[in-house]
């Protein structure tokens, strides 16, 4: 009798696990835009197929996701290769932001940062002039930050025997950086940024920026994305250019905290419940890296009066696994 019960439990777990896995989302380098009473999720890839570019899902609760109305072929494209957009390959790491009545989508293609725009969060995002932001050299992983004084800054990655974070003031009107302001953020200096589990050149990427009480908080991922120790830490500065002080509690998102390998490269957003969240990706499983799975985690911020800044941590036992809603 006991063996029959065990068999039934095992069979149920296998069936349930497979059913959930079939509904899981597979966006790497994800971002979530909040507006119009909904959450909008996009990222690199996604398991639902479609042409090259970026597709999107929407949700009202972060757990159950659906295609926007009007989707065809099981996918809703917000930006499509060749449709007045730069790039033929390597569409990575999008970010959506709204300024006045215009939506902007920045992304990587052909190892160049790119910006397109639309009058709707659901696109289509297109360019008036089909070109990258700065074609002078390769640069990826764009993140546009708007400061309180109305100035914009482009945080991104440039290559020099590794991946390093850079920042420059950004002219949103013409979609170009101000080259004279281009500044490297920092070098690889911490042990958690280069663990021995996967040997590679220095890698720091996937930037996102928050400003709180006149302090700038730059969050980034370190280690190669194939490493089980791909993870997220942050640094603090008094200026958008730095100098940056890396925090001793780094990394704040790591496999030892969230329970899955390769946890990193995401973006912050505030939920309708007022909670701060971070959306990120993890490896497919213990043996396989891709397709990378999408995860969402609540973030704590606590004021440290002695240091005069916020300290960040995540609720590792409250990770949300977003799923396609059942029909």
UniProtKB/TrEMBL annotation:
Signal peptide (from-to): 1-19
**Gene Ontology MF annotations:** hydrolase activity, hydrolyzing O-glycosyl compounds
The record's annotation in Gene3D superfamilies points to:
Glycosyl hydrolase domain, family 43
Would the keyword Signal be found if you checked this record's keyword annotation? Answer: yes
Keywords, A to Z, come to:
Carbohydrate metabolism, Glycosidase, Hydrolase, Polysaccharide degradation, Signal, Xylan degradation
Biological process (GO) annotations held by this record are: xylan catabolic process
Catalytic residue list: 29 (proton acceptor), 205 (proton donor)
Site (Important for catalytic activity, responsible for pKa modulation of the active site Glu and correct orientation of both the proton donor and substrate) residue list: 141
InterPro entries in alphabetical order = Glyco_hydro_43, Glyco_hydro_beta-prop_sf, Glycosyl_Hydrlase_43_Enz
Which family, according to the similarity comment? Belongs to the glycosyl hydrolase 43 family.
UniProt protein name: Family 43 glycosylhydrolase
């Amino acid at each position: 009798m006991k063996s029959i019960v065990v068999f039934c439990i095992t069979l149920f777990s296998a069936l349930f696990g497979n059913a959930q896995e079939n509904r899981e989302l597979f966006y790497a380098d994800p971002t979530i835009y909040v507006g119009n009473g909904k959450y909008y999720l996009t990222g690199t890839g996604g398991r639902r197929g479609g042409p090259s570019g970026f597709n999107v899902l929407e949700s009202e609760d972060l757990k159950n996701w659906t295609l926007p109305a009007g989707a065809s072929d099981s996918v809703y494209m917000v930006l499509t290769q060749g449709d007045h957009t730069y790039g033929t390959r390597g569409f990575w790491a999008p970010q959506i932001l709204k300024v006045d009545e215009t939506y902007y989508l920045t992304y990587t293609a052909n190892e160049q940062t790119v910006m397109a725009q639309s009058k709707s969060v659901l696109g289509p995002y297109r360019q008036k002039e089909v070109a990258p932001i700065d074609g002078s050299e390769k640069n990826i992983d764009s993140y546009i930050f708007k400061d309180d004084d109305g100035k914009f800054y482009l945080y991104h990655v440039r290559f020099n025997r590794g991946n390093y974070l850079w920042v420059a003031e950004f002219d949103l009107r013409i979609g170009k950086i101000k080259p004279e302001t281009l500044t490297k953020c920092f070098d690889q200096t911490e042990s958690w940024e280069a663990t021995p589990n996967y040997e590679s050149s220095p890698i720091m990427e996937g930037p996102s920026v928050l400003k709180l009480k006149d302090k700038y908080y730059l969050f980034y991922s370190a280690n190669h994305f194939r490493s089980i120790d791909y993870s997220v830490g942050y640094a603090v500065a008094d200026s958008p250019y730095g100098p940056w002080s890396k925090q001793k509690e780094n990394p704040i998102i790591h496999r030892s905290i969230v329970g899955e390998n390769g946890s990193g490269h995401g973006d912050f957003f505030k939920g309708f419940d007022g909670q701060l969240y971070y959306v990120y990706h993890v490896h497919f499983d213990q043996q396989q890296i891709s397709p990378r799975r999408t995860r969402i985690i609540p973030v704590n911020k606590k004021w440290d009066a002695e240091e005069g800044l916020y300290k960040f941590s995540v609720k590792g036992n409250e990770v949300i696994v977003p799923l396609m809603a059942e029909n």
